[in-house]
Write a structure and sequence with these properties.
65 residues, elongated, single chain, 74% helix, transmembrane helix, mainly alpha
Length: 65
């Protein structure tokens, strides 16, 4: 049986919901039913890195003003 990959919009929505703590129980169950956690891990790390980068950029803009 071929493994089902989560569709990209659902992956992004799941990671965003998890980061902000607003993910529904239904979506969480769908996420945990996936057989491969690697796409979620990679997307989560990328989202955290992007978030930290935005915070650093904002702080640089504020302190240089």
């Amino acid at each position: 049986m071929a493994e089902r990959k989560p569709p990209r919009p659902n992956l992004v929505k799941s990671v965003a919901g998890a980061l902000f703590g607003v993910q529904s129980e239904k979506n969480r169950e769908i996420d945990f039913s996936q057989q491969r956690p690697l796409p979620f891990i990679v997307a989560g790390i990328a989202a955290i890195a992007l978030f930290v980068g935005v915070l650093v950029a904002i702080s640089q803009l504020v302190t240089n003003s």
